[in-house]
Specification:
By secondary structure, this protein is of the alpha+beta class. 39% of the residues lie in helices and 20% in strands. It has a 4-stranded antiparallel beta sheet with strand order 2-3-1-4. The structure holds uridine-5'-diphosphate (UDP) and magnesium ion. The site of uridine-5'-diphosphate (UDP) has 9 residues, from loops.
Length: 140
């Protein structure tokens, strides 16, 4: 598999506990490179739009409020098979079901406050990267 890019968010539960470096170490140790990164506060509108695919799910409003509750770190990660590799490094959505050594197992609080977002396909990765970054902000 050729070099690929994926989109990642270090979520408010993780920034609150000062885990940005420990989470980035997981990416770097397992072959992903942080090629763009910025810390920001999402507006409610940005959070609603970013998670629009989940608008009919019962947890949508709670998810949006959580994502605006504190700073996030939005990132572009690059590496071989980056989309799938990042999903493996993250672990299952519910930290209780995540494999040992994954970010969500080690740091996740619960199924909502699960420390990281990662794109689920290369198509969604491209859309999500473009939502937050311009081309000149991504340096591979
Ligand atoms: N989420 C939640 N309750 C649920 C399922 C998901 O609060 O029952 C939140 C959680 O933060 C999750 C996000 O919604 O990461 C997006 O859900 P998705 O099913 O896309 O999981 P992911 O791709 O993040 O593993
Ligand atoms: Mg998802």
């Amino acid at each position: 598999m050729a070099t690929q890019r994926t989109f990642s968010i270090i979520k408010p539960d993780a920034t609150a506990r000062n885990l940005t470096g420990k989470i980035n170490a997981k990416f770097e140790e397992q072959g992903l490179r942080v090629v763009a990164q910025k810390r920001m506060r999402l507006s409610r509108l940005q959070a609603r739009e970013f998670y629009i695919v989940h608008k009919d799910r019962p947890f949508y409003d709670e998810l949006v409020e959580y994502m605006v509750s504190g700073p996030v770190v939005v990132q572009v990660l690059e590496g071989d098979n980056a989309v799938l590799k990042n999903r493996e490094i993250m672990g299952a959505t519910d930290p209780a079901k995540a494999a040992p050594g994954t970010i969500r197992k080690e740091f996740g609080v619960d199924v909502g406050q699960n420390s990281v977002h990662g794109s689920d396909s290369s198509e969604n990765a491209a859309t999500e990267i473009a939502f937050f970054f311009s081309g000149i902000e991504i340096v591979g």
